[in-house]
Design a protein that fits this description.
It is a lipid-anchor. By secondary structure, this protein is an alpha+beta fold. Among the domains are: 42 residues, no CATH class; 116 residues, 2-Layer Sandwich (Tetrahydropterin Synthase, Chain A). It is built from nine helices and nine strands. The strands form three sheets. Strands 6, 7, 8 and 9 form a four-stranded antiparallel sheet that branches. The longest helix has 165 residues. It is elongated.
């Protein structure tokens, strides 16, 4: 067991404590270090990283972007960013190649992606916005490492050797400025000469006018006549015509010189444009060559990777198919076993159920038979006791019918049958008043039947309106 000791961090340091009693990482300025604990000093001062990022604009024009970034661990209240820095970056020196390559990779990636979406003119003119976009996107990526950009300085864009875009652009701008300066000088000279001529003409005209007036006044005072006045006016007109001719000649000469200057400037512009177009064509040809080589290499890599991937896929598919078939066979075998066991269990259950149903039905039938037998024995005993008491079968029958309400039901049924009928009772008698004339009992019964038929048929006719059949006879109509 070691001896605990007290550790204090410097002004630009933090202590990262790990070990016994600490779940992940604890950040402290001072700490009492116990045994089984480890302390690492984190230097939180920022460091300058200088890079020359090579990128390409939307017109596929390469350029170099020199930049200097001041980057260090991010300090916040909950130390979340500093914990990320301690976990991911603190085991390397901030000036080591590992950290430089990490920061450089993030900056180059974001700069190239942003530059590819902008034209060269937009990058050149919007340096401030371009710097802001690069700063924001790089900071977003550095947040996951707990790093913060304290300052970012993007220098002027530099041409890539063999791609002198900015040089030609500067030459073009310089040529345009020189031509514009020449044109401005020529225009100023033209205005100066024209103004000088105008001032001279006006001075001479005013002097001639004053002279003429003076001469006229002088001739009037001296008493000269009209002849001298006409002469002076004639000379003034001649002088004016001469001056106007000189002004027209000077204007023509100036127009001629302006045409020559315009032609020279236009030729210079055309030559500059053609030179730029020729250089752009050469650059485009180089770009196409590089692009063709890159596409060839990419195609070879794609074909090779595709072949490898297809081989791996075929092997995996074959293994997967073999595994699937094995599992299907095992599943089918297991399923068949389970089906057989289930069918056996179902058959046993059905057999047991049928046996139970048969047993229950047998038991029910036995109980029903026992109940019927008991009822029969009770009824037999009851009827036997009644018969023993009344000692006459007819009396027993009448007693049972009265006791069960049979007579009441018969009377009620007969009453309902004849309800609403209006019977006519006719009494027929034979020739001898129904007495037998010594004939046998059989003939007596036949004679009774024949005596009963006429009133029966008449009653049926009166109640239903039906006539007896012709073979049976006819009933005389009532008078």
């Amino acid at each position: 067991m070691g001896i605990p000791h007290y550790i204090v961090a410097g002004p630009s340091e933090m202590l990262a404590i790990t070990g016994s009693g600490i779940s992940e990482i604890k950040l402290k300025k001072k700490h009492f270090l116990w045994p089984l604990q480890k302390c690492t000093r984190l230097d939180i001062s920022p460091v300058n990283y200088s890079f020359e990022v090579q990128a390409m604009s939307a017109e596929k024009l390469p350029f170099v972007l020199p930049a200097v970034f001041t980057i260090g661990p991010k300090l916040d209240e909950d130390n979340e960013s500093l914990i990320k820095y301690a976990q991911l970056v603190s085991n390397h020196d901030k000036n080591s190649n590992h950290v430089k390559e990490l920061v450089k990779g993030i900056i180059e990636g974001e700069t190239r992606v942003l530059a590819a979406s902008m034209t060269m003119e937009q990058i050149f003119k919007g340096t401030k916005e371009f710097k802001k976009e690069v700063f924001e996107k790089v900071q977003l990526e550095l947040n996951q490492f707990g790093l913060y950009i304290y300052n970012a300085n993007v220098k002027q864009l530099v041409d890539v050797p063999g791609h002198e875009y900015f040089s030609y652009l500067g030459q073009k701008t310089q040529m345009e400025a020189a031509n514009q300066a020449k044109i401005d000088v020529a225009e100023a000279r033209m205005k100066g000469e024209i103004g000088s001529k105008q001032r001279d003409g006006e001075t001479k005209q005013n002097a001639a006018k004053i002279d003429a007036e003076t001469m006229i006044i002088s001739t009037k005072r001296q008493g000269e006549g009209k002849k001298e006045e006409v002469r002076v006016r004639t000379e003034v007109e001649i002088f004016k015509n001469q001056r106007e001719a000189e002004v027209v000649e000077a204007s023509a000469e100036l127009a001629k010189k302006k045409a020559g200057w315009s032609q020279t400037a236009r030729l210079a512009e055309v030559e500059a444009e053609k030179a730029v177009a020729i250089r752009e064509a050469e650059l485009q040809m180089e770009v196409e060559k590089k692009k063709a080589l890159a596409q060839t290499a990419k195609l070879k890599a794609d074909l090779l990777s595709k072949a490898n991937v297809e081989y791996d896929i075929k092997v995996q598919e074959a293994n997967s198919e073999l595994y699937r078939r094995q599992k299907e066979a095992e599943a089918a075998l297991f399923e068949n076993q389970k089906k057989a066991e289930a069918q056996k269990a179902i058959a046993d259950a059905e057999l047991y159920s049928r046996q139970q149903v048969a047993n229950s039905e047998l038991f029910a039938k036995q109980k029903e038979a026992e109940g019927v037998a008991a009822i029969g024995e009770a009824q037999a005993f009851y009827l036997g006791s009644l018969l023993k008491e009344v000692k006459n079968y007819s009396s027993l029958r009448d007693y049972l019918m009265i006791n069960n309400g049979i007579f009441q039901e018969i009377a009620k049924t007969n009453a309902q049958a004849v309800n609403g009928l209006q019977p006519k009772i006719s009494i027929w008698s034979g020739a001898n008043g129904g007495e037998s004339n010594g004939e046998g009992s059989g003939l007596k019964d036949v004679a009774g039947v024949y005596r009963m038929l006429p009133p029966l048929l008449q009653t049926v006719q009166e109640q239903t309106g039906m006539q007896p059949p012709a073979w049976l006879g006819s009933i005389p109509e009532s008078k």
